[in-house]
Design a protein that fits this description.
Order of helices and strands: EHEHEEHEHEHEHEHHEHEEHEH
Strand content: 15-25%
CATH topology of the largest domain: Cobalt-precorrin-4 Transmethylase, domain 1
Number of domains: 3
Mean pLDDT: 96
Low-confidence stretches: none
Number of helices: 11
Number of strands: 12
Largest sheet: 5 strands, parallel
CATH superfamily of the largest domain: 4-hydroxy-3-methylbut-2-enyl diphosphate reductase, catalytic domain
CATH class of the largest domain: Alpha Beta
Helix content: 25-40%
Oligomer: single chain
Shape: flat
C-alpha cells in the first residue's frame, strides 16, 4: 500500500504534435544546421512556449515583424499558421532569405480562397478574429473580397446581395461541432454557396477532438496540455465541457495544475494540443504519480501516419 489515493489516467491518442507542427519545428532546426545561428522566425513558429524557448536556446530569434530582421545571410522563417501575401512580398523587396513553414493544410485553404476569388466569388471565412491563421488567410485576398464570420449569429447578420456568388473556407483548427453549425447556417441563408471539396478542418484537429469526445464522459476531469493562444487546444477544452466533463482545464505544464480543483477526482483524462510536445504530457503524469497511486491506460481512436516533407530549399541541402 502506498497510502496515496488511487487515480486512473486515460491518455487520449492521438494527442500532441501533428505533422504540420513537426515540419515547422524541423524547418527551424534544419535551417540552424544549414545557415548557423541566428535564424529569425516571424511570430511563434507554433503556439507553445516550451517549443519556442527550446528553439531560442538553439539560436532562433523570434520577431514580430520583418523590419526587426537585419539584412544579411541569416534567413527568416514564416510560422506554421501562414502569413498574408504582403509578408513574403516585403521579404523579397528587402532581399531577405525567407523560408515558409506554413502548414500544407493551411496552404490548401489559401489556395481555395484564391481560386474562389479568381472565379469571381465573394469569400466567407469561418474563423476567430485576430488568430494568425485567419490574418494569413484573409491576407491572401484584396481588401473587401473576404469576410470573417465567427458564429451562427454572424451569419444571420450578413448583408450580401442575392446576386453575389459566394464560397466559404474555414480556419483549420476550429471546433468541428461549432463549424458544422455555422456551415449549416450559411447554406440555409445562401443555398448556392460553394464549400471546399474536402473539409478544411485539419485531420489532427478532428482526431484530437474525437478522442476527447469519447473519453470526456468517462472521467472526473480532463486536462489539455497546450498554450492559451493555441486555438486547437482551447477547442479541446470546449469539447470536453460540452461532452459533460465536470472539470476541463488547459495547462501549459505541471506547474500550472490547480491541485485544489482536482483533490476529489478518481479518474482523469489527459490530451495535448497539436503544438504541445509529449515531454510535457510525461511531466504531468509524473506530477500525478507523486500524489496518487496511478494506473495509466491509453485510449486510441485513430492512427495518424501523415507526413509533410521539408521545403525544397532545405531538402536539397541534406
Amino acid at each position: 500500500m502506498t497510502g496515496k489515493p488511487p487515480l486512473r489516467i486515460l491518455l487520449c491518442a492521438p494527442r500532441g504534435f501533428c505533422a504540420g507542427v513537426v515540419r515547422a519545428i524541423d524547418i527551424v532546426e534544419k535551417a540552424l544546421q544549414v545557415y548557423g545561428a541566428p535564424v529569425y522566425v516571424r511570430h511563434e513558429i507554433v503556439h507553445n512556449r516550451y517549443v519556442v524557448d527550446s528553439l531560442k536556446a538553439k539560436g532562433a530569434i523570434f520577431v514580430d515583424e520583418l523590419d526587426e530582421v537585419p539584412a544579411g545571410s541569416a534567413p527568416v522563417i514564416f510560422s506554421a499558421h501562414g502569413v498574408p501575401k504582403s509578408v513574403p512580398e516585403m521579404a523579397e523587396s528587402r532581399r531577405l532569405i525567407h523560408i515558409d513553414a506554413t502548414c500544407p493544410l493551411v496552404t490548401k485553404v489559401h489556395r481555395e480562397a484564391l481560386l474562389h476569388h479568381r472565379r469571381g466569388r465573394f469569400v466567407v471565412l469561418i474563423g476567430h478574429e485576430g488568430h494568425p491563421e485567419v490574418i494569413g488567410t484573409m491576407g491572401q485576398l484584396p481588401a473587401g473580397a473576404v469576410m470573417l464570420v465567427e458564429s451562427v449569429e454572424d451569419v444571420e447578420a450578413l448583408r450580401i446581395g442575392d446576386k453575389v456568388e459566394l464560397a466559404y473556407v474555414t480556419q483549420t483548427t476550429l471546433s468541428v461541432d461549432d463549424t458544422r453549425d455555422i456551415i449549416a447556417a450559411l447554406q440555409a441563408r445562401y443555398p448556392a454557396i460553394i464549400g471546399p471539396h474536402r473539409d478544411d478542418i485539419c485531420y489532427a484537429t478532428t482526431n484530437r477532438q474525437e478522442a476527447v469526445r469519447q473519453v470526456a464522459p468517462r472521467v472526473d476531469a480532463l486536462l489539455v496540455v497546450g498554450s492559451p493562444n493555441s486555438s486547437n487546444s482551447l477547442r479541446l477544452v470546449e469539447v470536453a465541457s460540452r461532452e459533460g466533463c465536470a472539470i476541463a482545464r488547459l495547462v501549459l505544464r505541471a506547474s500550472d495544475i490547480d491541485w485544489d480543483a482536482l483533490k476529489d477526482i478518481r479518474s482523469l483524462a489527459i490530451t495535448a494540443g497539436a503544438s504541445a510536445p509529449e515531454v510535457l504530457v510525461d511531466e504531468i503524469v509524473e506530477a500525478f504519480r507523486a500524489r496518487y497511486d496511478v494506473t495509466v491506460e491509453t485510449v486510441t481512436t485513430a492512427d495518424e501516419t501523415m507526413f509533410f516533407p521539408l521545403p525544397r530549399e532545405l531538402r536539397e541541402t541534406t
